[in-house]
Amino acid sequence: MFYCYEVANFVEQDEREEVKPSIEMATQLAEALEVSLDYLVGSTDILLDKNIVAKILDIQKLKENDRQHVFALLDAFLKQTKLQSIM
Predict the structure, then answer these.
(1) Nearest-5° angle of CA 28, CA 52, CA 85?
(2) Residue 46, by phi and psi: left (phi above 0), alpha (psi -120 to 50) or beta?
(3) Residues 48 and 36 sit within 8 Å (Cβ to Cβ)
(4) pLDDT in tens, the chain (87 residues)
(5) Global pTM?
(6) CA–CA separation, 11 vs 36, rounded Å?
């Protein structure tokens, strides 16, 4: 578990390019900050909500037919919402 002073120390060293984290350290830092590794290293500017990610992971565990139903419902809802926003 990271503590605030450890995170601050790491960030200072990283900004001065004194240290590059191992994948394990980067993973721990991302978990402590509750962000993805992609977000942490700047590969994306999209910060995903943990609840949304958990739901996506649950959907992936469904049988293919059930997943298709979930996506059909989600697609229909998103299309309706987009149409309502332009009207």
Answers:
(1) 135
(2) beta
(3) yes
(4) 455 556 666 666 666 666 677 788 888 888 888 888 888 888 888 888 888 888 999 999 999 999 999 999 999 999 999 999 998
(5) 0.54
(6) 17
Residue 71 sits at φ, ψ, to 5 deg, of -70, -35
- Assigned token pair, 59: 């959907």
Q: What is the CA radius of gyration of the chain?
A: 19
DSSP per-residue string spanning 43-60: S------HHHHHHHHHHH
- Asked if 13 contacts 19 with a C-beta cutoff of 8 angstroms, the reply is yes
Cα angle 66, 79, 55 (rounded to 5 degrees) comes to 40
